[in-house]
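One such shown below:
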Amino acid sequence: MHAARHWISFFVGLLLGLFGLFNLLGKTAWLGPLAGVTGSVLAYILAIGGLYVIIDSFFEFTFHSGMGLTTLLIGLVVFGLGLVNVLSGFGVLGFSVPIPNLVYHMLFIVEGIFLMIGTFTMT
């Protein structure tokens, strides 16, 4: 049976994936107050989600090293993109990576998919 952390990863992944999917489909009425989220808030969500994917990937390494490595690389890229934009908002970095909202939402879907896959690859 799967542990509680597996199901937490599944539901976090489902929420991230649905958030990205609803925005891509233009069904923002379902999201309520999250519909008008700005780019800077999206960067925070992206960075936190990427960090969660990185943490989740370490649990996958034990039994499925190939999937764990793929998840780790995806998490590092997503976390890096989000972190660069968060730090540039504070003035720590002198540059930012311009990410359109469409790409943000596509990255949320990718994060969600990898978290949900991780639910069933961990034993």
